[in-house]
Amino acid sequence: MNRLSQLGVIVLVLGAWQVAAATGQLGAVPTPLVVAGAVLGLVLDGSGWGPLAETLASWFISLLLAVVIGVIIGFPLGVSRVTYRMSVVTLDFLRTIPALVFVPLVVLLYGAGLQSTILLAFFGAVWAMVMQTIYGARDLDPVARDTFRSFGVRRWDTVTRLLLPTALPYMATGVRLAAAICLLISISAQIVIPAGGFGEQIVVHQLSGALPEMFAYIVLCGVLGMAIDSTFRWFERSVLAWHPSHRKVSS
Amino acid sequence: MQSISTPILEADGIGKSFGDNQVLSDVTFSVAKGQFVCIVGPSGTGKTTLLRALSGLGPANSGEVRVNGRVVVQPPAELAVVFQDYSRSLMPWMKVGKNVELPLRRLGLSREERRKRVEQALRDVDLGHAEELYPWQMSGGMQQRAAIARSLAYRPEILIMDEPFASVDAQTRADLEDLMLDIRDRLGVSIVLVTHDIEEAVYLGDKVIVLSGRPASVAASVEIPLGTGRDQIETKSRPAYLELRAEIHRMIMRKSDTVAPQRAPR
Ligand SMILES: Nc1ncnc2c1ncn2[C@@H]1O[C@H](COP(=O)(O)OP(=O)(O)OP(=O)(O)O)[C@@H](O)[C@H]1O
Ligand SMILES: [Mg+2]
C-alpha cells in the first residue's frame, strides 16, 4: 500500500511533467520521455560511464578523508569536556563556511581537476563527521563507564567495547550525512569549476544546447544520490541492530 | 563463623559531600575475609554513595578506604561491583555471554578457561540458555542475574552488591540469596551487600550495618551469630533470627524518628 502510493505520486508527477512539456508550458524543458531516452543513450553508448567514474571517485575519496579525519579530530574533542569547550566556537565558525567559497583558492592551487573537487567536498563534509563523533563520544553512559572502570578493563578493550560502540550510532549518522554532502559538493564543484564528472557534463551540454542530455545527467545525479543514501541507511541498520532505534525484538 | 582476622576491607571515617549536601559522615566499619556484610538504610541515605567510595569509583572527601591494607584511590583489582542500575551496566551491543566475559579478558586466561567460567557463572544464576541473547531481549530480573553472573565469573576477593535482588521474584530471590551464601562458603569471597530488606540482611549477613541519619553514619553494627549452613525456612524460624530482625527494625525506627523528621518511603 505504502509502496503503491509512493509509486502513484511518481507517476503523477511524471505525467504532469509530460503533459506540461508536451504542450510547451515549460519552454525549452524536454518531456520526461525524451529525457529517459537520453539517459538510456548515455548508458548504452557508454558515454555516461566516464563522468560517473569521475564523480564517484571525487565522492568516495572525499568521503573517506572526511570520515577518517573527522573521527581523528572529533573523538579526542568529545571525550574530554575541556577540549570540547575550548574548540566549540572554532568548530561552529568553520562548519558554517560554505565549501564552495574556496573554489577560487583550490583552483589556483590545484587546477581544475579531481584534487580540487575532493578538497572542496572534504571541507564541506568533515564537520558533519567531527560533530557527530563528538556527540557520540559525549554520550557515554556513566554507569557503563563505571562498570568498565570497576573491572579495570584494559584501555584497548575500553576503546573497542565501550567508546566506539557508544559513538557508533552517531558516527553512522555522520557518515550518512557526509556521504550526501560529499556528493552534493563534488557535483556542484564540477559544475562551477568545471572539473569533470556529471557536473561538467551538465555544463557542457547546456552550452551546446543539448538539453535532453543535460537533463539526463541531472536525473543521473538524483539516482546516484538516492542509491548512496539508501545504501548507507541499509548499512546503518545492519551495523546497529542492537541500537534502540533498530531493534527488532525488545522487552 | 568466620574468624575475625585482619580485615580485607576497611572503611575508616568516610565522609562525602556533593557541594553543600553532606551525605556521609565518619562511616567506619570493616569486612573480614569471607565475611558477609549487609548494609541497610532508608532510600536516599547514601548507601550507593558509600559503595562508590568503597570501590574507588567515587572517592570520599575525608577518611580512607583500605583493601588488603592498601589505600584505595582507584578501583582495586580484587574487587567487583554489581551496580544498582544493572540494566545500564550491561552493554546493549554485546550478547550476554560477551558481557559476562568482559572482565575476564585482562586476567590472562585461555579462551577455554574464559568460556568455562562464563558458562559456569551463567548456569549458577540459571541463565544457561541466555548466553546468545542481548541484554535488551531479557526481562529486568534476567538482566540483574546476568550482571551478577558477570561479577561471579570474575571471581573477586570482594564482591560489592547494590540491591542486587531488587527486581526478581520471591523464589528467584531466595535462590540467589542461597547462591551468594554458597559462593561465599565455597570460594571465601567477602561480600558487601546493600539491601532495603531487613529480613534479607539478617538472613545473609554475618554482620548488619545500619546506616542512618543526615548526614548518614553507622547507627549500629550488629553481629549475626547464626552460623553457616543457613536455610530459608529453618533459619528464618529460629528465635535468634526473629530476635535480631526485630532488634534491627527497632533501631531503624528509633533512628528515623529522632534523626530524620520525614520518614523515608520504604
Ligand atoms: N552524583 C551526585 N551528585 C549529587 N548528589 C548526589 C549524587 N549521588 C548521590 N547524591 C545524593 O546523595 C544522597 C544519597 O544518594 P544515594 O544514591 O547514595 O542513596 P541510596 O542510599 O543509595 O538510595 P537508594 O536506596 O534509593 O538507592 C542523595 O541525597 C542524593 O541526592
Ligand atoms: Mg542506592
Radius of gyration of chain B: 18 Å
Low-confidence stretches of chain A: none
Largest sheet of chain A: none
Strand composition percent of chain B: 15-25%
Quick one: which chains have the greatest interface?
A-B, 24 and 28 residues
Distance between the termini of chain B: 31 Å
Low-confidence runs of at least 5 consecutive residues of chain B: 258-266
**Roughly how much helix do the residues of chain A carry, as a percent range?**
over 70%
Indicate the CATH topology of chain A.
Answer: MetI-like fold
Number of strands of chain B: 10
End-to-end span of chain A in angstroms?
Answer: 29 Å
Shape of chain A: globular
The major β-sheet of chain B equals:
6 strands, mixed
**Relevant CATH superfamily of chain A:** MetI-like
- Assembly type of the shown chains? heterodimer
Shape descriptor of chain B reads globular
Count, helices of chain B: 8
Summary of the model, kept short:
With 251 residues, chain A is mostly helical. Chain A has helices at residues 2-22, 32-44, 49-79, 81-95, 103-110, 114-138, 142-150, 155-192, 197-207, 211-239.
Give structural notes.
The complex is a heterodimer of chains A (251) and B (266). Chain A is mainly α. Chain A has a single domain, classed as MetI-like (MetI-like fold), CATH 1.10.3720.10. Chain A has 10 helices and no strands. In chain A, helix 2 crosses helix 10, helix 3 runs antiparallel to helix 4 and helix 8 runs parallel beside helix 9. With 266 residues, chain B is an alpha/beta fold. Helices cover 35% and strands 24% of the residues of chain B. Chain B has a 6-stranded mixed sheet, sandwiched between helices. A 4-stranded antiparallel sheet of chain B has the order 2-1-4-5, with helices on one face. At the A-B interface, helix 7 and helix 8 of A face strand 6 of B. The complex binds adenosine-5'-triphosphate (ATP) and magnesium ion (MG). Magnesium ion binds next to helix 1 of chain B.
